[in-house]
Write a structure and sequence with these properties.
- This protein is of the alpha/beta class and 471 residues long.
- Helices cover 35% and strands 20% of the residues.
- Strands 3-4-5-2-1-6-7-10-11 form a nine-stranded mixed β-sheet, sandwiched between helices.
- Strand 8 and strand 9 form a beta hairpin.
- The protein is globular and about 65 Å long.
- Bound molecules: adenosine-5'-diphosphate.
- Adenosine-5'-diphosphate (ADP) binds next to helix 1, strand 12, strand 13 and helix 11.
- Adenosine-5'-diphosphate binds next to helix 1, strand 12, strand 13 and helix 11.
Length: 471
């Protein structure tokens, strides 16, 4: 069996969020299970991709409407990820610093998908499964099933994984001319809400649809930005498979990004050294419990609650808070504006910094995840792996991975994405922190929890096998 994953992100070559971590790790675990897995992604103009070595395996041309675009498929020979990975080079459209956020994203997403399919048609050995991630590659299941040019791929089962249903990638019917010709009776499969909707088309056309946690799958039947009816209708082919983490990349004993490495036997000293660095760097008091947030500053993550959480917490609790993230400017500005009021107790780093995130996992005391929506969430699993206690809202993957300490679990949980609930949880965390024996015992316990891909990769392999039997 040969599986091809198509994705706009893959760690460490291009990362915006958890999608990159999943695509950068799951294929390695599948390959180790004798399920040969390859990845294809766009070629970006970023440092991580510029520093790689490449071997061109194919040159071709696609058409977006009347416009021809030459493309190159390059195997990345230096990535050392434990699986084969290809980059699609289309200089005019894909070779940009970031994966998304451009006025012509629709054309960019389409060009990538057309180049992948065009190239696949030239191969002698076709993949047994094409696995698409999010709406950026969501037109592939439709195109494989119905576009005239890809007849050769017709019987290949397609899988869609929804990492985040907030983004559907829809665009106007005016751009229908960009889509290669297909049996026009099938046009309805592209449509949802009077737009061409790649996520909806993938939900309709993929042979199987997975989400990144079982709870998120259930939640999507109720709230999915207008796709809930479709997801309920397609329920039979949907399943939730919890993401895992790559314990080779996320290992406090070997992580090259942290200040001091540690394992379960040197946890306390090692974490203290990392905390010391953070407190020096951000002017915080090492003796106070340090609460951190790492993530995109968007409504989904509950980041808009952070300014009030900071003010209310610091009004009556002797703790420190550190926030790492970027996103909505109004949230960033509100968080920055609070700094002069709480010098020595609160700080921020507005931006994306992979190294700093690792040091925070290794040195903070509690991680705040007040998410409104959390398809799986990787931060809480990284936190456990580094001995950092997560404070989470019971939603999506957070609900599936973090049981509350009151129920014999290892996190602090609350039900609402509200300032009140989060502040109440912070109060519980302070009590826990003051009970040094219980606090340290919990840290020693969480660092041993296995959230690696081992289990979930087997579930994907079974899913692929079942699809191959259906062919
Ligand atoms: P999402 O994909 O919705 O953003 P996940 O929890 O699945 O959320 O994954 C987030 C990943 O991105 C984690 O690896 C987290 O450490 C990382 N991350 C998010 N924001 C930042 C940031 N500002 N700097 C460094 N890493 C970040």
């Amino acid at each position: 069996m040969k599986v091809l994953h198509t994705s706009f992100e893959c760690y460490p070559l291009a990362k915006v969020g958890g999608l990159a971590d999943v695509v950068g790790a799951l294929p390695k675990y599948l390959t180790a299970l004798d399920c040969h897995t390859e990845v294809i992604m766009p070629m970006y103009d970023n440092a991580a991709m510029q520093s790689q070595s490449y071997h061109t395996v194919y040159n071709g041309t696609i058409r977006l409407g009347n416009d021809p675009y030459d493309y190159e498929i390059k195997e990345i020979t230096s990535a050392g990820l434990g699986f084969t990975i290809y980059a699609v080079a289309i200089p005019a459209l894909l070779y940009r610093p970031k994966p998304y956020g451009y006025h012509d994203d629709t054309e960019r997403f389409l060009s990538f998908q057309l180049a992948v399919l065009d190239w696949l048609c030239t191969l002698e050995e076709l993949p047994s499964i094409i696995h698409c991630h999010d709406h950026h590659t969501g037109l592939i299941p439709f195109l494989v099933a119905h576009a005239h040019a890809y007849e050769k791929l017709r019987t290949i089962p397609t899988v869609l994984t929804i990492h985040n249903a907030q983004y559907e990638g829809y665009f106007s019917h005016d751009k229908m001319y960009l889509i290669p010709s297909f049996d026009f009776e099938k046009a309805g499969l592209l449509d949802w809400g009077q737009s061409i909707n790649p996520l909806a088309a993938a939900i309709k056309c993929a042979w199987k649809v997975t989400t990144v946690s079982p709870s998120y799958m259930e939640e999507l039947q109720q709230f999915a930005n207008g796709l809930e009816g479709l997801l309920s209708h397609e329920n039979e082919k949907c399943m939730g498979i919890l993401n895992g983490i790559d314990p080779d990349v996320w290992d406090p004993a070997t992580d090259p990004m942290v200040i001091t490495n540690y394992d379960s036997t040197t946890l306390l000293e090692g974490r203290a050294k990392n905390k010391e660095w953070i407190c020096q760097e951000f002017g915080l008091d090492i003796d106070k419990p340090l609460f951190a947030f790492i993530g995109r500053m968007v409504y989904e993550k509950g980041a808009d609650l952070l300014p009030d959480i900071v003010s209310q917490t610091l009004a009556d609790k002797d703790v420190s808070l550190l926030i790492l993230g970027s996103g909505k400017h109004d949230i960033e500005e509100r968080l920055e504006a609070l700094k002069p009021h709480y010098t020595g107790r609160y700080n921020t780093y507005i931006g994306y910094d992979e190294k700093l995130s690792h040091i925070i996992y290794a040195g903070a005391d509690f991680l705040l995840m007040p998410s409104r929506v959390e398809p799986c969430g990787l931060n809480q699993m990284y936190a456990l792996r580094y001995g950092l206690i997560p404070i989470v809202r019971r939603i999506g993957g957070l609900k599936d991975t973090i049981p509350d300490i009151g129920d014999g679990g290892y996190g602090i949980c609350h039900d609402q994405a509200s300032v009140q609930d989060v502040c109440y949880s912070i109060g519980r965390a302070v009590e826990l922190y003051e009970d040094k024996e219980q606090y340290q015992a919990l840290q020693e316990r969480i660092i041993t929890i296995d959230n690696s891909w081992n289990y979930s990769a087997k579930q994907y392999r079974e899913l692929y096998k079942s699809l191959n039997q259906l062919k």
